[in-house]
Amino acid sequence: MDASKTLITQITELTTQIETNYPELYKFIDEQPITVPSSNHPKTDEKNLLDYLESLKELLRHHLDTHHKN
Question: What's the pTM?
Answer without folding.
Answer: 0.76
